[in-house]
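Bug report

Summary: structure tokens for Bifunctional nicotinamide-nucleotide adenylyltransferase/Nudix hydroxylase differ between web form and batch submission.
Environment: batch mode, default settings.
Steps: 1) Submit the sequence below via batch. 2) Compare with the web form result.

Sequence submitted:
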Amino acid sequence: MPVPYHAPHTAVLIGRFQPFHLGHLALLHQALQTAEQVVVVLGSAFQARSPKNPFTWQERATLIRSSLPAADAARVHCVPVRDYYDEPRWVQAVMAAVHTQVPPGARVALVGHFKDDSSNYLARFPGWELLSLPRQGDFDGTPTRELYWNLANLPHDALWAQLAPLLPAPVAEWLRDWQTSADYTALRAEWRMLSGYHAAWASAPYPPVFVTVDGLLLCHSHVLLIQRGHAPGLGLWALPGGFVEPRDTLWQSCLRELEEETALPLNTDTLQTALQGVEVFDHPDRSLRGRTITHVFVFHVPGTQLPPVQGGDDAATARWVPLGDLPGLETQMFEDHFHVLRRCLARFGTAGLPVALP
């Protein structure tokens, strides 16, 4: 006699949903048919707005619920998970976030579609039943986003004739309104700049790999940050740094960037003494500019007097920021620089004391 199938208590749907399109909605409907409740994991949460991640996790949660009937929306719980650029840690964070919404011992099923290598994360949750579903229509977030940025300068009606069939009606309505916002204008300009950047390298025989340096300076429980004066990331907070010049070593490039962007009045010998180590950050998706590998030089500057700094070159502002203020700046940090700070502070701490960021 066949054993009856018992539906899982919770179905989990993981994605960035930038934006939430009809393919996502079809998967969500499947998940709602499978389980008593659905937990939607909103990836890339707490990131600053960018052309790849234009919408906050709160906005995405609202758009998802607004695309459902009220009874179904009441069965959906949205949880944010930040990017860690470290898959094991990210898997732990996803499971922890999901289990805040699941009773102890309840069965959990992961709902998804194996699209390409970017879907391999679906196999990283061995304790959850995997419900692999076929592709739900011809929908894809990346071309939908690129169409929305309208770099082809299509007339409004022509643009929406292409976009509207890809989106739930409430999402399309919200995106039309958001097109009039200052954030849309800024991110569209940034994507235009980045697209030109990519086009300049399109004829290279291999995709380029860029090498950069950053300086992480700690002094008297403060960290030195700059506010970017140009796109990409105009107005966002970052570590001082930049590309390695053809005739510079990594060390020389770091010293040059610190001088140009912060006017830091410390000589080479002082910085050499203050150097604690170098961390490399090489995740393939850490920068929209392309594959960018950075070398972060970590310094502990002694004393209780913060050296004077002043923004220059690509930096609109340079400022010593109290370490306690960093969590509040997470959504205003450029690319993966909050993650860079988290990892470096965990390893090197400040004055020998480890500092933990979320």
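Above is the batch result. After comparison, the two runs are identical; trailing whitespace caused the diff. The chain has two domains: 10-184, 209-348. Residues 209-348 form a domain with the Nucleoside Triphosphate Pyrophosphohydrolase fold (CATH 3.90.79.10).
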